[in-house]
Structures are given as C-alpha cells and as structure tokens.
Amino acid sequence: MFEKSLLAHKRILVTGGGSGLGAAMSHRFAELGAELLICGRRSATLDETAAQLRAAYNAKVHTFACDIRDANAVADMMAAIWQDGPLDILVNNAAATFIAQSEHLSARAADAILAPTLHGAMYCTLEAGRRWIESDHNGVVLSILSTSTITGRAFTMPSAMAKSALLAMTKSLAVEWGPKGVRLVAIAPGPFPTPGATGQLHPEGRDSGPAARNPLGRVGEHSELANLASFLISDQAGYINGEMVVQDGGAHLRSSGAEDLLHWTDTQWAAQRTARAKS
Ligand SMILES: CCC/C=C/C(=O)SCCNC(=O)CCNC(=O)[C@H](O)C(C)(C)COP(=O)([O-])OP(=O)([O-])OC[C@H]1O[C@@H](n2cnc3c(N)ncnc32)[C@H](O)[C@@H]1OP(=O)([O-])[O-]
Ligand SMILES: NC(=O)C1=CN([C@@H]2O[C@H](COP(=O)(O)OP(=O)(O)OC[C@H]3O[C@@H](n4cnc5c(N)ncnc54)[C@H](OP(=O)(O)O)[C@@H]3O)[C@@H](O)[C@H]2O)C=CC1
C-alpha cells in the first residue's frame, strides 16, 4: 500500500519497541526502509526483536535498555542517539496500565502508571524536541494514546488521565513547535490484543471481550495500526499536525469499553486483588 522507500533514511525511536504494538510498528517501519532505535527495560526482549528486524529487512537497528520513568536515563539515551546523527521521528509507545477500582489505588499504584505513560513520554518528547529545535532539524512525534482521551475510562483512571494529558501535549506543542519544524500527531487505538494489554486489562472473569462489543465484530490487526503509524510519521502526512486519529472499529462511539466491569461484584474485585498479590 506504500512506496517501499516511504521511510528510507528516517531514524526512528520507538519506545517499548521490543514487544507488542511497538514491535509491530518497528517491523513495518523497517520494512519501509527506516533505521530503528528501540528502547525498553528488558534487554533480552529488545535484542530478540532487533535480531528479527535485521534478519527480515537487513535493517540498521540499535537497542537501548532505558527506563523512561528516569529523566536522566532518557537524557543519556537521547545523547547517545544523537552521537550518530539526529533522530527524525519519536514514537511514544511505551506505557503501563492495569484495571483496579480507583478507591483502592494507592499513591504508588497510581504513580506506577503515570510515571512511564505520562512522564516518560513527556521526557522523551522534550529531550528530542529541544535537540531538533537547537539544530534546526525537522522532527515528528507520534504518541500512541487511547480512546479514553475521548470517553474517559472507568477502572483505568490513571491511564485515561495520562493519555489525555499526552493529547494536550500533542495539541499544545503542535502550535508551539510547528513553526520550528516539529510536527506532533497521535493515534487512539481501540482493542489490539497484545500479551501486555491482555494480561493487564483482561483477567479471567471479564466478559467475552472487546471483539463482541465492537461494531465491526472484531479487534484490530497489528498491521492496521502499523500502517496508520507509517503514514502519519511519513512526509506524506506533512500537513497533519496536532491531530489524533481514532482506530477502533467505531467502538468508542458505542461505549467506553469497560461497562462490563460495573457489574463485577465486590467478591470478584477482591479475587482480582488477591490474584494480583499472589502473582
Ligand atoms: C485503557 C486502554 C489504553 C491503555 C492500554 C495499555 O496501556 S496496554 C499496555 C499494558 N502494558 C503494561 O502495563 C506493561 C508495563 N507494565 C508494568 O511495567 C507493570 O505491570 C506496572 C508498572 C504497571 C506495575 O508494576 P509492578 O507490579 O512491578 O508494580 P510495583 O511493584 O512497582 O508496584 C507499584 C504499585 O502498584 C500496585 N499495583 C501493581 N499492579 C497492580 C494491579 N494489577 N492492581 C492494583 N495495584 C497494582 C502495587 O501494589 C504497588 O502499590 P503499593 O502496594 O506499593 O501501594
Ligand atoms: N494493545 C491495546 O489494545 C492498546 C494499546 N494502547 C497503547 O499502545 C501502546 C502499546 O501497548 P501494548 O503493545 O499493548 O503494550 P505492551 O505491554 O506489550 O508494551 C509496552 C511496552 O512498553 C515498554 N515499557 C513499559 N514501561 C516502560 C518503562 N518504564 N521504560 C521503558 N519502556 C517501558 C515495555 O517494555 P519493557 O517491559 O521491557 O520495559 C513494552 O515493550 C501503549 O501506549 C498502550 O497504552 C492503547 C490502546 C489499546
């Protein structure tokens, strides 16, 4: 669907690029000619994905074991990246969430979600943006958000807060940094099952799942998200700035996606907390 060289000569950092949707996007970007830089906390996962990208597309790939909750670690990673030349595109993909009754969230639990999802993405954006502006180099920031930015999301309140704040960042910087050559865009995915999302959001005991509730009767394919991301970060989308594209089969128009949890009993929630404590 795209020219094979759509992303040729682009250096792209995908946070959380070792697994899930981050890995799916990295595969598509590499296939379209990009040089990939992927970061996450688990080196082994990053190395495995990097090896796959090199074998499949002969791609140039660099890995960075970096916890984006740590602003100094993000600054060090960006400095290391820039030593080999400027980055062209940042994809804010790394995030964390879990379902919980908000009245049971401790401050530490809420921060465990806000720290990587909001602060980590903001640190990455500020570090990349400042370097682009200082060197007069054009840049693109794509943030992977959620339809919770539109509907809110019961039982994942900190994630909904973080994603909504990143949408505010996208819109704010689109105006502030647009004149300086930096473009910001976002995607709000609906359900795209990954081991991470399924493990955190769909424990046993939830209803039959997001496919049944979706107007299109199915969940998203990773290739669909990767294709949309490829377009949005490419020069072909050069006049799209400050926008979030929803890709959810129309699900958010029907519901916020968590209504089934309203019917969980206190016993089910207690079992969920116990299961979590045991794991
Ligand atoms: C909505 C759609 C959009 C978004 C989709 C996605 O993001 S999909 C992507 C999804 N992918 C990912 O999320 C991948 C990344 N996920 C992660 O890195 C981790 O799972 C984590 C950071 C979320 C939790 O890390 P960890 O378990 O090492 O946590 P920790 O030891 O650092 O404890 C910190 C505090 O949090 C508490 N707490 C923790 N879990 C639960 C829970 N289930 N229940 C209740 N509470 C929980 C824990 O008890 C502690 O509080 P306390 O007791 O001290 O007051
Ligand atoms: N899958 C879905 O249905 C949906 C996903 N999304 C969004 O899509 C994105 C990807 O989700 P998905 O692929 O499902 O999730 P995964 O759990 O599979 O991936 C999360 C990635 O983020 C990395 N990560 C987490 N915390 C940190 C950290 N502190 N520092 C650096 N890297 C970190 C993880 O690597 P490591 O553990 O090695 O650090 C992992 O590679 C997220 O932003 C999510 O909110 C939005 C709506 C729906």
Automatic annotation (TrEMBL):
Task: Keyword check for Secreted, yes or no.
Answer: no
The UniProt keyword set, sorted, is: Fatty acid biosynthesis, Fatty acid metabolism, Lipid biosynthesis, Lipid metabolism, NADP, Oxidoreductase, Peroxisome, Phosphoprotein
Q: Which InterPro entries match?
A: NAD(P)-bd_dom_sf, Peroxisomal_t2-enoyl-CoA_red, SDR_fam
Is the keyword Phosphoprotein assigned to this protein? Answer: yes
Catalysed reactions, as listed in the record: (2E)-decenoyl-CoA + NADPH + H(+) = decanoyl-CoA + NADP(+); (2E)-tetradecenoyl-CoA + NADPH + H(+) = tetradecanoyl-CoA + NADP(+); (2E)-dodecenoyl-CoA + NADPH + H(+) = dodecanoyl-CoA + NADP(+); (2E)-hexenoyl-CoA + NADPH + H(+) = hexanoyl-CoA + NADP(+)
**In which broad location class does this protein mainly occur, judging by the first location in its UniProt entry?**
other
Which Pfam families does the annotation name? adh_short_C2 (PF13561)
Q: What is its EC number?
A: 1.3.1.38
The biological pathway it contributes to is: Lipid metabolism
**What ranges does the record give for the region Disordered, renumbered to this chain?**
194-217
Cell location: Peroxisome
> Superkingdom of this entry's organism?
Bacteria
Q: How does it assemble?
A: Interacts with PEX5, probably required to target it into peroxisomes.
Chain's role: Participates in chain elongation of fatty acids. Catalyzes the reduction of trans-2-enoyl-CoAs of varying chain lengths from 6:1 to 16:1, having maximum activity with 10:1 CoA. Has no 2,4-dienoyl-CoA reductase activity.
* Name assigned to this protein: Peroxisomal trans-2-enoyl-CoA reductase
Q: Which source organism does the UniProt entry give? A: Tardiphaga alba
